[in-house]
TrEMBL record:
Residues 462-519 form the PucR C-terminal helix-turn-helix domain. It comes from the Bacteria. InterPro entries: CdaR-like_regulators, PucR_C-HTH_dom, PucR_C-HTH_sf. This is PucR family transcriptional regulator. Transmembrane segments: none annotated. Signal peptide: none annotated. It comes from Solihabitans fulvus.
Amino acid sequence: MVALDRLVDVLGSLGTHLSCAPRGREVELRGVALHDPAESTTAAHDDVLLGLGTGSASAAARLVGNTRAAAVVLHGHPPLDERVLAAARRSGAAVLLVDPEVPWSQLVNVAQTLVLGGQRQGCAEGPGDLFALADAIAAVVGGPVTIEDQQSRVLAYSYRQQDVDPVRVQTILGRRVPDEVRRVQDEHGVFGHLATSDEPLFVPQLTEALGSRLVAAVRAGRELLGSVWVEVDGPVDPQRTAALVDGARTAALHLLRARASADLERQAEADLVISLLESTVGAPAVLTRLGLPTTDLRVIAVQAHAGEGEHGAALLAFERATAGFGWSRPGRSALFGNVLYTVVPCDEEAVQAMDWVRSLARELPAEATVLAGIGGCADAAGLPTSRLEADECLALQAAGSGFSGFSGFSGSGAGEPLVYDKAWAQVLLHRLAAAADTGRLPVRGPVADLLLHDGENGTQYAATLRAWLAAQGDVRQAAKELAVHPNTLRYRLTRMAEVTTVPLDDPDQRLAMAIALAISARRTP
């Protein structure tokens, strides 16, 4: 069972518009029916009816006017045809218009998962149920309760607040357990116990601000989904311990339902994000659906590696990036291949984007290595360009040696992502190096002649020319860079002219030689 309002929220990410709801948005849906144009369709009063085969407004009006269903989903664009609207008012059915580009197969899958999935579990969806469960556990076990995920983020907490310790207050206000508290609990062996045992564990007072706790794992099969914590004065009796175990099992059902719903929302979000990165058509409307502004945005491209489990690390990064409610996350993400793309609101300094990457890295296992590129600031129409810039910054990280700057960092958070605004010169040279590798740049010229001569004779002419160009013709500065006498540098410049023509007095030639030298240092072997 699921409320119409919930169905509208999820389908809204697929381009669906609630055109009318004569009985309100709280009407409950317990079944899914499919319209068959060749037969008389029977739908119950609490079904959502998918209107396959209604190719005209008159056909849609007949279907809506004659149905007993609580809601009807039709292909089309708003506004709703007046004939269909009048029919809905007569029958009381809510009407949802979905973009015709969305296939019926996808709509059927989403509707059945939400409506029938909730029915199979035997109770309604919604985070409120988890808060109610926290209240129930608190009443039976006898202490304030928090229900947390694997990263110690608070999913729900009990209403009871009297006589709570400072850590509980910090945890609820910050929506997660403070890092220093997690460290103390980890040192005490709490998380090791949760990973291997379903038995509740009494945790004594570990710090002055952290009172004693009773904690139990929330598990589905062998997979740890989270934990339930109860603030207690001391060890509790077996009856209250058993009540906590029952509560943890019930919490597992809630979290599994939430995960199924979240997977649908992740896919819908990912589809919208990919559409933003590939096309500018309708971008402002898509950003509005995603709850993002239409200006001051950046695209982040991330790869996560953990040994040989590259794709596993990428999936984990996607899950971490999309965990929580949309309003609590700064960005919106999609996993494309093994690259995680995230669109985030960001200022000219890219501070928010860099903080987002660091935060993601902290959420991943310590052995994971994160490579990240951040595109330039863009409005709705510029997101495909920002995505290209993020890709190229990411490619610089993957190239490893030969490029200055960030070369990846571990889950501990060391290192910095590469931002296009500061790396555009490297990006340009990387593009030219790639073009040179494919034979699209000249392969002969003074730089090529000097490199060949150096390779055959052990001279340092190319390095000398690079230093002279970097110093803008200042012989003393170039000589200092090379750690040679200025006369030695002048002698080398004179001897170069015997190897090839080096037109140092031509500004275009100097620019071309500087670029060719930079590319030669970056080309793959």
